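User: Please run a holo structure prediction.
Assistant: Happy to. Please share the sequence and the ligand.
User: Here you go; the ligand is zinc ion.
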Amino acid sequence: MAEIGRMSINQATTREQHSLAEAIAAYAAHGVTGISIWRDKLAECGLDRAVSLIGEHGLRVSGLCRAGQFPAADAAERQARIDDNLLAVEQAVALGADCLVIVAGGLPEGSRDLPGARSMIRDALGAVLPRARAAGVPLAIEPLHPMYAADRCAINTLSQALDLCDELGEGIGVAVDAYHVWWDPDLATQIARARGRILAFHVCDWLVPTTDLLLDRGMMGDGVIDLPAMRAAVEAAGYAGLIEVEIFSAANWWRRPGDEVIRTCRERFQQAV
Ligand code: ZN
């Protein structure tokens, strides 16, 4: 089972319990190795303060969430989103993040042109990538489950994300999130294909039944994903980075005390990942 020293917690897991400063202190107090930071929480905290708190507590930043959200109805808005991604690159540099997580965005409002949205994503990644390369911050495209294609992310499979990586070249890879890709019949082939380009591995579980498509993710071991098998595949493809627990759970884990959530993450990480 997974070695606890490789665990990072995505701060969304205790989003309702902790500010960024509180999450950093709590995770460090529980001996957690890493944290993945969300930009809305970062904005509340302030970048300089976040950088010093991270240093003070000795946490590794496994990722900065999230950039992307590229498709938009007009050129000015598309450029504004590219500019925001360039800012996110600078934030990731300051935090020493292992990668900048890209959730690419869905359809512009009123649009039915999914191929067009995907073209916008490719073009915008091409515009952000030179700065990310120069800064040494890898861009991690996170394919999201197809149920989010309209409103969050039109990149929905590892295959699609890796095709983009093939096209765009150096400095870009994928974030493999178990919740989003576990169902894919092509998963094993695509994880093997991703060798050298896996920048992050996110874990939680798929509950049966799932009561909310966004905010009912399960704790590892409570659902139906074979996480040890997926970890083995990701590691066989060369991934040796931190493994990030990322649980959005409005009705359950967000309602429990933060210490209980972190303790449970530690236990389940060792038992079920
Ligand atoms: Zn994720």
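The chain has ten helices and eight strands.
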